[in-house]
Amino acid sequence: MTSRIRYADVQVGTPIPEQTFVLKRVDLLRYCGGCSDFTATHWNERVAKAVGLPDVIAHGTLIIAEAVRIVSDWVGDPGAVVEYSVSRFAHPVVVPDDDVGAQLRVSGRVEQKLDAECVVARLSVHCGGREVVAGARAVVRLA
C-alpha cells in the first residue's frame, strides 16, 4: 500500500484530521489479554480506587497506539510511520463502567519537513478536556 498524501502537497502547519476514539471497559479487557498485562488497575475498580485512582484506567500503551492511528489513517499506510515517540503521560484516562466509555480526542499538525519524503507530525491527545499524552511525535514517510 502506498501513501495517498504527497510530500509536495504538505506544508508545515498542515493539519491532520482530528478523530475521536472510544475506549470502553471491554476494550481494556481485550487489551489485557492481547498484551498479557493484567494489572488490576486496568480492570478492577476496587483495586484502582484503593491505590488512589478515581476508577479503572486505560493502559498507557493502548492510549498511544490509538493516538497514532490518526497518522496512519491520514497517509493510508501504517508502514509509513517510521518513528513514533511520546514524552510522558500527563493524566490517566479513566474508563467508566458505562455504555459511553472514555473519549480520546486526537489531532495533529505537520511540524517539520525533514527531507524529500519525511515529515514530523506533532499529536495532541485529550480526554475529558485534559491533555493525557504530552510530546507525541511521529515521523512519517509520504509519497
Automatic annotation (TrEMBL):
<dbReference type="InterPro" id="IPR002539">
    <property type="entry name" value="MaoC-like_dom"/>
</dbReference>
<dbReference type="Pfam" id="PF01575">
    <property type="entry name" value="MaoC_dehydratas"/>
</dbReference>
<protein>
    <submittedName>
        <fullName>Dehydratase</fullName>
    </submittedName>
</protein>
<feature type="domain" description="MaoC-like">
    <location>
        <begin position="19"/>
        <end position="121"/>
    </location>
</feature>
<dbReference type="InterPro" id="IPR029069">
    <property type="entry name" value="HotDog_dom_sf"/>
</dbReference>
